Amino acid sequence: MKATTPTEDLVRGIWKENPVLVQLLGLCPALAVTNTVANSIAMGLATFFVLVGSSLLVSTFKKVIPHEVRISAYILIIATFVTIADLVLAAVVPVIHKELGAFIALIVVNCMILGRQEAFASRRPVGRALLDAVGTGAGFMIAMLMMGTFREVLGNGSILGVPLFGQNFEPWVIFILPPGGFLTLGFILLTFGWWQERKAGTPRVRQWPHGVATPSREEAA
Amino acid sequence: MGELLWILVSAMLVSNFTLSLFLGLCPFMGVSARVETALRMGMANIFVLVITSMCAWVLNTYVLTYAPYLRLISFIVVIASLVQIVEMAIRKISPTLFRELGIFLPLITTNCAILGFAIFQTNRGYNFIEGITFALGAGLGLTLALVLMASIRETSELSSVPAMARNMGLVLIIAGSLSLAFMGFAGLFSA
User: Could you give the number of structural domains in chain A?
Assistant: First the structure.
């Protein structure tokens, strides 16, 4: 692994290697609970807390954890923080806790968190691990917020429950239903793809793999 | 019997794990490029889900009534270690089956579909038989979603896709359409 500066560790996860939008990790919560802005914020904060807490602990104890059982040890550490987050959310915001339901518990198996432990926190000093966790967590929150805003505005015509449009607005309900999650992330990725393609100036037509005959227009239709 | 059938069909179609509950998305995106792999992944999923269902039931009935706050930690530890043991056993007993499922078993143990399943089963208070039926339904649903997705992706390999959709964007739009189609099953029981 090549050396990185502390700033790079912090900034990397926020946009360039955004866990959800670029690396497509932690998709389950990103798609499942982003139907309203409030849910997205609660989920983002809970995940941020778990990620920072477990990175800190894993990095602190990296010399003590035997290599062979490291994954189980990481999962135990993560599960402990998730239990804390679960209990705190249930006590502070019971309504949101009920809406998020099983997805709070499922932070344990969010591959983004385990991925950061394995790839970064277990090899770097505590300070760096903390920076990386804060950056990645912030990136996750940004992605959640983007999706939550997009879906609530289109699907319900409101932000944080406050109506944005007048009486005549017909909510595009599909965006707060499950298919909306897939479609929203799909549109975001398509936009990124379009942007990158414009920047790189690659040919607009798909390059056919070697040996595949290009179908004529009639055949393709 | 009717109750069991309801559990099976509802877990498989009406509230499909992948397409309407967003569980198990990593394999759904990751190994859905070929139908054959998708089918094996689905089989491995069914297998692990049934084991998980039994584990979760035993834990809930005999252990966790004393310490409910340990639920999450004990679920994940017990499921992960049991799957590991079963994997070793399969390797010894049937190398063919191991080749079929082998690499996928450890991968899906920490998949959110598995833990999510255990939590749902607990929350709904299913008994042993109902739990296994639920596991079969959920597993079949996951397999169905994976195979459908893989078939569509295999076909779309040969169509001319706009350059901007060459990354995962296309897959997500396809998943959205599939999810939309599965919403149609919601009316299956209300009539």
Answer: 1
Two structure tokens written together for A45: 């904060």
Residues of B in contact with A206 (CB under 8 A): 160-163, 166
| pLDDT, tens digit, 9 for 90 and up, residues A10-52 | 888 888 888 888 888 888 888 888 989 999 999 999 999 999 9
- When CB atoms are compared, the residue of A180, A185, A206 closest to B160 is A206
CA triple A173-A174-A180, angle to 5 deg: 130
| Nearest residue of B to residue A185, measured between CA atoms | B172
In a domain, B191, yes or no: no
> Does residue B189 lie within any of the structural domains?
no
Please name the residue of chain B whose CA is at the shortest distance from the CA of residue A110. Answer: B112
Show the domain range for A73: 6-187
Strand partners, A163: A158
With an 8 Å Cβ cutoff, are A31 and B25 in contact? yes
Q: Which residue of A has its CA nearest to B181?
A: A179
Q: What is the per-residue pLDDT across B82-105, written as a single tens digit (0 to 9) for each?
A: 877 888 888 888 888 787 776 677
How does the average pLDDT of chain B come out, rounded?
Answer: 85
Report the distance separating Cα B23 and Cα A9, nearest Å. 30
Whole-model pTM?
0.85
- Domain residues for the domain of B170 are 2-184
Contact B26 A111 (CB under 8 A): yes
User: Is residue A175 included in any domain, yes or no?
Assistant: yes
As a whole number of angstroms, the distance between CA B82 and CA A79 comes to 18
Write the pLDDT tens digit of every residue in B12-39: 998 899 898 888 887 788 778 888 888 8
pLDDT at A221: 45
Structural domain total, chain B: 1
Amino acid at B100: E
How many of the other CB atoms lie within 10 Å of CB of B65?
Answer: 9
A215 within some domain: no
Smallest CA–CA separation between A138 and chain B, in Å?
Answer: 21
Query: Could you tell me if residue B175 is inside a domain?
Result: yes
For residue A201, being part of any structural domain is answered with: no
Name chain A contacts of B165, Cβ cutoff 8 Å. 190, 193
A217 found inside a domain: no
Residue B126 forms part of a structural domain = yes
CB contact under 8 A, B77 and A32: no
